Amino acid sequence: MAWASCPKCGYAEPFEDECPKCGVFASKYVAAQGRRASTVPPAAPGIPPSAGLPAPLPRPPAGAGSAAAILWWVVGLLVLGVVGYVVLVDWFGPALHFDAPHGWQKVEDDVTERAVRGMCPRLREKTTVHALYTLLGSPRETAMGILEFDERIPVDETLLAQLRGGLDQVGGQLPGVKLVRAERGFYGAWPAVEVQIELAAQGARVSVLQVMLAAERSTLVFVLVAPSQVFLAQIDAVRAALATLRPLPSGLRGKPWFKYPLRWLWVFATAGVLLFGASRLRRAS
């Protein structure tokens, strides 16, 4: 069969079956085109040929990424806020409960606090002065304080013997020092060691009461100093108030190797989240 032109490349000179220009066999090419046309279903009127193809996936709007980032920023800020509440309460909140006797007033005195810390040189870095009190209308020597050592000191016979030995040594050097009582006991659920001494100087007599309580992770120290007459008048009320002394529960307090890094980690994390959120808001706007 002769072909007047090539059905593929359009060569216009007559030829038998093989196109002299592109080399295709015209009969095979026409048969293949007929088979391909029979396999494609005809398109319905008014429907474009691409209607049977799957629809492309919708693209997210341009601002979706920023909105998601801002949402995560808000969630992170809320989480940091909850953690920050726990951290700040432990950082700045009260660490213990104590109902002071009637007439005793709490004082805020940095000089006195430094002096109290200086009384404990070995544990100075681990000492927290929680409260200092004075008795209204009393002599200047009257004071009451509550300290906490970030270390659990065993309150046992060994400690009691050390306190007695130290007081005997001081009494040998200062004849005016007298040990009145040194014994172990309990204040609530806390084991305690109680020491009472008297100091005589310049015709005046001063009494001192020191109570050490072994808390769960630390050691509480209660000190009362007053002229002996005031001391005797206040000792019953002070002992009743000591029954209310207890440390408040906290998961961070008492673990300095854990709580101090956690506090500053929270500070830096909060600052980073705020800076990240500010940059995202600036981009979104």
CATH topology of the largest domain: Protein Transport Mog1p, Chain A
Helix coverage percent of residues? 25-40%
Distance between the termini: 74 Å
Describe the main β-sheet briefly. Answer: 7 strands, antiparallel
Taken as a percent bin, the fraction of beta residues is: 15-25%
The CATH class of the largest domain is identified as Alpha Beta
- Rg, alpha carbons: 44 Å
Query: Could you give the order of the helices and strands?
Result: HHEEHEEHEEEEHEH
Give the number of domains: 3
Order of neighbouring strands in the sheet with most strands? 2-3-4-8-7-6-5
Shape: rod-shaped
What do you see in this structure?
There is one protein chain. The chain is built from six helices and nine strands. It folds into three domains: 1-39, no CATH class; 64-90 and 259-284; 97-247, Protein Transport Mog1p, Chain A (3-Layer(aba) Sandwich). Strand 6 (190-201) and strand 7 form a beta hairpin. The chain is rod-shaped and about 145 Å long. It has 285 residues and is α+β, with helices and mostly antiparallel strands. A seven-stranded antiparallel β-sheet has the order 2-3-4-8-7-6-5. Strands 1-9 form a two-stranded antiparallel ribbon.
Keywords:
single chain, 285 residues, alpha+beta, Protein Transport Mog1p, Chain A, 3 domains, 7-stranded antiparallel sheet, two-stranded antiparallel sheet, 6 helices, 40% helix
